[in-house]
User: What shape does this take?
Amino acid sequence: MAVKPTARRMSSWADDLRAIMQGTQILGRPLLWYVSGWRLGGFFFLMVLLFPLYASTTFINVAIPVAIYVMLAVGLNIVVGYAGLLDLGYVAFFAIGSYVQATGTFGAIQVNTSTGEVRHLPVLSFWLLLPLGALIAGIFGILLGAPTLRLRGDYLAIVTLGFGEIIPVVFNFAPFWFGNTGMSANPPADISLGGSTITFSNPLDRTPFYYIAVILAFLVILASISLRDSSLGRAWVAIREDETAAAASGVNLVRTKLLAFGLGATMGGLGGVLNAAYVQAILPTDFSFYISISVLIMIVLGGIGSIAGVIVGAIILRFIDVYLLGQINGAVHNSGLVADANSPLHFLASLDFNTAKFLIYGLVLLAMILLRPQGLIPNARRRRELKGEGIAADSLSAVGVVEREEHDEGVEGQGELDQTVYTGPGADAQGREG
Assistant: This one.
């Protein structure tokens, strides 16, 4: 079926812009070189560090949950984007990290619901609970991955969905975590530096907590980039593309899948610890299925497997959820066409855009599927797959072909970015088939 011209034009605007930036030379280098790779990432990170200097308190409070969800999206991208394992229960690791933080700082557990008997525990430091929560969540990720090694596709999604639903129920009905009354969690303790004190518990100034969230998100992103470029990352991609071929090539499926589940869960647990310290009170109902779906939508929107795309998708959707929908509610409900009982649009006065956010997300995803199915910032492999590019010649075997992918780090001085090099028997020094 032919693609509509309008959709084709709208889906290629980014490629046209990329070609223009590649052709524009500044000081002997294409403009694309200056705004790609580590240079763009370094500039973005610098702007994020300076953000509290020019942003209001409201936007700082918005940026903290955005940074937390960037961590969650990058972690889930390891499982879904790298290894190709559909995980619909990612919220479970987020909940585990949150309850580790709450249990460690609350200093008590409930041992008898009928008598209200409470057993006191030592209060632990936030800096100790960060790695502890990540470690415990990672262990549960491995425990989830172990019985699902033989499952693929929809069956794997169903099992992980069940795990994500079970964990909040356990926290709700097990006596240790005070059931549906929830638990409080303390923020990090104040830090004294010389004559000044860094306070994390001041609700009017969350700048110190903002820097914790940004630094942790930055470390998670660096870890994800390192994993992507490692032999383990290539093994994940091999499993994603063809599990049978990966096993025949020597990839240990058991270990590789377990590492994907474990490392993704570790990052989710880290985000959970940070989330509990930020909100300072958690309930089992806070960890519903919609969190897993929201994080998955962030990955699909930004580009599955693309770190830059995942970050952009998380920022966009979380900003819409935390800030923009509330502003739309106020603007619509207070407008003259809605507020007046006799106005033709008064039926919108009972519409809460916060509750309709998944309808909005669905429309956004539908538009992405029609106009740009590879995501806002796709990785090179997925872009070529969807466009039918980069296919090896019929005369070359799959073993003898190595694809040079264009990475986000940028390519210097190359006119042809996507190249196919033959490395099989009889190849000469330039990679031509002899």
User: Anything to note?
Assistant: The CA atoms of residues 66 and 120 lie 34 Å apart. The two ends are 39 Å apart (CA to CA).
